[in-house]
Amino acid sequence: LLAQLLATQLVTSGQKHLLDHKRTYYRLLRRIIAQGQAEGQLTTRRSVNELSKLYALCERYLMYDWCLCGGEYSLRDYAAQVMPDFLSGFLPG
After folding, report:
1. Is the dihedral of CA 26, 28, 33, 38 positive or negative?
2. What DSSP letter does each residue of 4-72 carry, written as one string?
3. What is the mean pLDDT of residues 41-50?
4. I want to staple 42 with a disulfide (CB 3.0 to 4.6 A). Which of 17, 36, 50, 55 is the partner?
5. pTM of the full predicted structure?
């Protein structure tokens, strides 16, 4: 099902629902990032929109790679390994 969803987004015509920044997903993500920046928990060197795009990009990459590999590894376990390193770039510093 996930592979089908991602595949539909690769066609050049039609709507790109995964990239629709009006989706609830993006609205919540921007709100969480803005709050983290306001509280000093996240970097302000990048805008809310830039950070939300980077996060969504990483999330899509993880799902896409998992699909390409035929689900041969635990997506949850792999994400738990790589996301902390990725998200460390969101920290103030």
Report:
1. positive
2. HHHHHTTSSSS--GGG-TTSHHHHHHHHHHHHHHHTTSS-SSS-HHHHHHHHHHHHHHHHHHHHHTTT-
3. 97
4. 36
5. 0.77
